[in-house]
Amino acid sequence: MFPRSRCTTLGSSMRFSLVVLLSAATAFGSAIPRDLHPRDVPADELAQFKFWVQYAAASYCHDNYASKAGHKLTCWAGNCPQVEAADTTIVYDFSNTTATDTAGYIAVDRTNKAIVLAFRGSYSVRNWIADAAFLYTDPSLCDGCEGDLGFWSSWALVRDDMIKNLNGAVDANPDYDLAVVGHSLGAGVATLAAADLRGRGYPSIKLYAYASPRVANIPLATYITAQSNNYRFTHTDDPVPKLPLLAMGYVHISPEYYITAPNNASVSANQVTVLEGEVNFNGNTGTGIPLLTSFPAHHWYFEEADACNGPGLPLKV
């Protein structure tokens, strides 16, 4: 425990540093073009968004990421009813095998003819360490591209097994769509995984990233945006998509699907606005600095996305 005088000095220093970083962030962001003509989503797209978040929600449920092949997806919290109603089974699950504790599953949905790779959000201590890395690494995806070390490592450490099992699922279901989904940390990992997989034989893979942190510098974000089939969601003043800070060189992929509905409320089509640009102050980025008091907005993405999350922060799951 620090002496009181040192705590006061540290607190003042941290507040000053935060002001400097946020000021730099504003200057950095204002230099990037952004769309002045946002649009609402059509109702049929909204139904898809509400469906795919249920696969992200299911990734938090222990029985789905620590099960056996053939297990039917279930959510004890009741937040994935459409997934539970579908003919969906897990073909591969993963957790507690890497330094980053990357967890999730690959599932085959025969009702909707889809193969789903889902990444769990933060749960264990190792997840939070991966979350907070905020250091750059070269993922070798494009010239000048750099991504967050923690999120990239979370994907790279499981990539070989994922590709092997995805190949098997695709060979058995060649006409099925392929989707990568995640919420929070899981969305950050899913974003980089989708970008990588598109260059490894799956160019049409769709990404559904709910409450994703920033994971890329401008060249990498531009590269992923150009791949298309990206659906990245934010909700009101959720603090997680505001991290890492713009001043650190991180930006988002485009577009942003900005949800303005209140917490714990159903979402209508006119409450989801599509915003273009790696930085756009008309959406989540423009709602102020990241605050812990805004964290309730992080949970609600059409459903309470992390309702199945277990208690505590275990070293192992």
Automatic annotation (TrEMBL):
It comes from the Eukaryota. Pfam families: Lipase3_N, Lipase_3. The keyword Hydrolase applies. InterPro entries: AB_hydrolase_fold, AB_hydrolase_lip/est, Fungal_lipase-type, Mono/diacylglycerol_lipase_N. Residues 116-246 form the Fungal lipase-type domain. GO terms for biological process: antibiotic biosynthetic process; lipid catabolic process; monocarboxylic acid biosynthetic process. Keywords: Hydrolase, Signal. Residues 26-90 form the Mono-/di-acylglycerol lipase N-terminal domain. Residues 1-31 form the signal peptide. GO terms for molecular function: hydrolase activity. This is Mono-and diacylglycerol lipase. The lineage of its organism: Eukaryota, Fungi, Dikarya, Ascomycota, Pezizomycotina.
